[in-house]
Amino acid sequence: METTFGTIPIYISADQFYLYSVLVPEEHLQAKDYVEDIKGWNFMVSHGWGYGCSYEGGEAKKQLFPPLDDTGSYILDNGEPILFYRHFYGFEEGQEVYFELNQRIAHVLDVHWVERRSAYCKLDALGDLKNVVEVSISERGYLATMDFDELELYMFLTDTALIRVFDVTRYRDNPWFEDQGSKDQISLEGESELHAHRVIVANDRSYLRGFQVIRRQTPDETITQVVHGRARRPKQYASFIALDWKHGVVAECSCAPDDLGNYFVESDLPFQISPAFFRPEVILKYKQDPDKYTVEERTITCRGTWSVRYDINKAGQVHVYLRDLGNLPYEEQLYWKSFNEEPKAGISERAYKTDFLAEWYGEYDPLHSLKRVLSQFPLALQFGIERPIWSAPEGRNPFSRLAYVVTDSKKEWEDQILELSRVTIDRLSKKNIRKVAKALGCDDPSLGSLKLLRLCLASLEVAQEVIEEVVGPLEMLWHLRSSGIAHFGDSVPDVDLGKHYAGLLASIDNSMRMLAEFVEQHYFDISKDGRSQRVANAKDG
């Protein structure tokens, strides 16, 4: 069977073709009679563990039966099945049958069932789902396949070989025949070791029954590298136009670790922290797929499989150190290379201070500041219960999609306007703000959260210019969002979209910071008897 590499069948039950896979200790295949032993196999797909009773001396004794019990082969009895056939009797019609991967294999290979792919999956180096074990259930029968690289790793860890037993019947009209006709034994040695018994009756009926032994094909030294967390195959590295500041030149430099130097070993190689520069559009791919990538102020992360540090210089270029580019998968390196260009300015002041001077960068960063304000936003006390005036979006990292605008792309700007509105205005609690308005006697059922907020602050005798500072930027953001996203119309405005958004971000940061301070100062608290706590405190004072 030429199915010993790539994606291999591990279970087939269809059209008079049966194949099932079992892992057995390699040492058991050293016995002289192992071929005759395994040839005696006589069992169907394992349903897993079972229980029952055995009788000794007329007395019933409870017993657990292992998945491979009474297979007709001593070697297979002591083997480990890869897949179990499960049947949920009485369940939804058409959904009773499913297949379960051996849990030990699933745990060791770190694979998980993904229903929409009908497969046990893991993430590959690019952060994409990779099918490791695929299962197909149809009217014709069942088929399960497995990635042999993954199976081979498990075989290495457990010192096992793969045994695939098979039984194939072929006929034209009449499916029944006796064990008559020409008979022969088939034995193939080598990488695809196979032993079988074949019977041919006339020209229209035959069957083939036997087993195949598949041993590991990759050298132990290579798989040992995988166990140590390295790639199975040698990694490739791209080269980039970079600022080789060690030699004071802009040159094409490889990001391979062996082609880079450091401070501690004298060499003529460029430093690992030589920066390469890129057009800002390089980041758009990551912003447009927030389910896969997390873009933060200085880091891009892909589902925990890789990450890269970056910053943006005064010329608007994204820059990354060669060392960090070398940590990316090769395919990702090639993507970055397509945006590579010569430097138009040096690295950012922030990168210089933090990465070279080891100093804290204390300059105001509106995005970082806003995220901090929102993550620490206080609660109001209403009727003796803590309630939110603003609440964070759901999710483990609710602000992961909020980022700077780094290109002149109108879509990028629009996306960030939507996102900024989503995490600020949309999360204001109209219900709890209205409670304050009712306590102050200024409620208007027709008003939304922003206008109610303005009314409440005015009723609490907050100065008009302060109210404008709190509510004005939020109203501007709402206007930008609600007027077809961009109130500028169909054409891109003749302004720097990055600077425009950064300015708006700073004003929203100030708004939310001031609103948080008002909440902390009990402006939105309501006493248990339904009065504004702020007004009550003022009267009592």
Q: What do you see in this structure?
A:
- This protein is α+β, with helices and mostly antiparallel strands and 541 residues long.
- The protein folds into three domains: 7-224, no CATH class; 239-356, no CATH class; 366-540.
- Helix content is 29%, strand content 27%.
- The protein has 16 helices and 26 strands.
- The strands form seven sheets. Strands 1, 2, 5, 8, 9, 10, 11, 12, 13, 14 and 15 form an eleven-stranded antiparallel β-sheet that branches.
- Helix 12 packs parallel to helix 13 (449-459) and helix 14 (464-482) packs across helix 15 (497-520).
- The longest helix has 24 residues, at 497-520.
- The radius of gyration is 34 Å and the shape is extended.
- The model has no long low-confidence stretch (mean pLDDT 91).
Features:
3 domains, 26 strands, 4-stranded antiparallel sheet, 16 helices, 29% helix, 11-stranded antiparallel sheet, alpha+beta
Number of helices: 16
Structural class: alpha+beta
How large, in whole angstroms, is the Cα Rg?
A: 34 Å
Measured between the Cα atoms of the first and last residue, the distance is 91 Å
Say how many strands there are. Answer: 26
Largest beta-sheet details: 11 strands, antiparallel
Instruction: State the domain count.
Output: 3
Any low-confidence stretches, pLDDT <50, length ≥5? none
Q: What is the helical fraction, as a range of percent?
A: 25-40%
- Overall mean pLDDT stands at 91
Range of strand content: 25-35%
Shape: extended
